[in-house]
Design goal:
303 residues, alpha/beta, Nucleotidyltransferase, domain 5, five-stranded mixed sheet
Length: 303
């Protein structure tokens, strides 16, 4: 059986075709049509048609998108690719492709990919964490996504940042309208905002999370202090996830997760924050990198 996965992002649409063993048969990436929903549907249809013509076979189709499908309306909500919000993407793609299409949040697709044949393969309960432009996660139990009654399982980024480790946690406000969301501290923009908040005009301009990490590696004390705060906050926020879900593996993904030594620091700091006398949860780096989301979309059709 051939599976096609499509990852619809704000700047690109990526598609992959895999066989039953997860081997890549075809892969393509195109620019995402800006603010034009109809062109997004046409682009996905064109990628699927091209793959099927190239491979000489029809395929199942899974799609990863930002946001989630509302249980109330069946339409996309909370997507930063705003042309998708309020749209019945699953219905429109099914009509365009002439078959059922399975759709999931992109963080869920990342988690599914890493749980099936990635860094969490073989583990009963896997949490795939995204640290990028936003903060999200997906939860996979025995190879199946746990989506939840409200289709928001894994949305730890919109809980309030725990402040047990800091006497005066900086005040932030999230795009969702709530104060002190974890996303506003642990996303890439949140990391940069914290560096600017503390260092003011002394912070270089422009700067991003990668540049802060490079400065820290070069011995810059201010950048090192920023990363130290970030590692502490990340460990504290992930401790809440562990205390509630108690996963076997946490797989780290997203651009910020590539910062050194983030994984090792989280693994070192996490046990003291978890409600257990021994922590066996493994914290690992993803195996499939930028391909995890699109591979997970393909795996929405189970092996």
């Amino acid at each position: 059986m051939i599976r096609i996965g499509v990852d619809v992002g704000g700047t690109k649409i990526e598609a992959i075709a895999i066989d039953a063993a997860g081997r890549t048969l075809a892969r393509r990436r195109i620019a995402s049509p800006s603010h034009d929903y109809g062109q997004v549907i046409d682009a996905v249809r064109g990628l699927v048609a091209a793959f099927e013509a190239e491979l000489g076979a029809s395929a199942s189709v899974g799609v990863g998108t930002p946001g989630a499908i509302s249980a109330a309306t069946g339409r996309i909500k909370n997507a930063n690719s705003t042309q998708l919000n309020g749209r019945a993407v699953a219905v429109d793609l099914a009509r365009a492709l002439g078959r059922e299409v399975r759709i999931e949040n992109d963080a869920n697709c990342f988690a599914l990919s890493e749980a099936i044949d990635g860094a969490g393969a073989g583990a009963p309960l896997v949490v795939g964490v995204i640290l990028g432009t936003g903060v999200g996660a997906g939860i996979v139990h025995d190879g199946r996504l746990w989506v939840g009654a409200n289709a928001i399982a894994g949305e730890w980024g919109h809980n309030e940042m725990p402040s047990r480790g800091e006497a005066a946690l900086p005040q932030t406000r999230c795009y969702c309208g709530r104060p002190r969301c974890i996303e506003t501290y642990l996303s890439g923009p949140g990391l940069v905002a914290d560096h600017r908040r503390v260092n003011g005009s002394a912070a270089p301009t422009p700067i991003d999370a990668e540049a802060i990490a490079a400065l820290a590696q070069a011995g810059d004390d201010a950048a090192r202090a920023t990363l130290d705060r970030y590692f502490d906050r990340l460990a504290g926020a992930l401790a809440m996830v562990v205390n509630i879900v108690d996963p076997d593996v946490i797989v780290l993904g997203g651009g910020v997760s590539n910062i050194e030594p983030l994984r090792a620091e989280v693994e070192r700091r996490l046990p003291a924050r978890v409600f257990s006398d021994r922590l066996v949860t493994r914290v690992v780096t993803n195996r499939h990198g930028d391909s995890s989301g699109v591979r997970g979309a393909a795996w929405l059709w189970p092996p």
